[in-house]
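Question:
Now give any protein.
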Amino acid sequence: MVCLPEMKEPTDITRLLERVAGGDPEAWDELLPRLYTTLHEIAHRLMRDQSRGHTLQTTALVHEAFLKMAGGDQRWETRRHFERVAARAMRAVLVDYARARNAQKRGEGWERVMLTEEVAAVTGPKLDVLALHDALDKLHELDPETAEVAELRCFGGLEHGDIARVTGRSKRTVERAWRFARSWLEREMEQTDG
């Protein structure tokens, strides 16, 4: 699994966000391509293993996620904040897509969408995005911090070190949280399928 591309410095996007918040119009011109590149990398990882008949394209996922992220008064304070919001936006787009596909099929079964190799190891080669979404919601009720790690891993495609950086936790804590989340999600999704 590929990590998000590192900027020159981890705070590069954060500095640009601060300049945008301060009213610097040139900062937005510098920031937008970097945000787009980051979103495209995430979307590419999520979409690269899709079946040939899958109709949602990487660029469409990027655009839909960005629209969700940019809607309203949303302002990203730091790169960490942006990555968290990006993972949630990608999740929302994929869930909306899966729901729409299910509605079109009129009872023909769930649309299976493969996300990443790591997530596929939990649930098998094809993953029901809606089942993962529901399982993550249940996990969030039990343990919001662990659910955040799982969301960043599954929908953000982040590695443990990146998740540690984004959440401000140690890498070891993130690894423990992911082991628990992976096991919990696997059991929860087996119960849902069974």
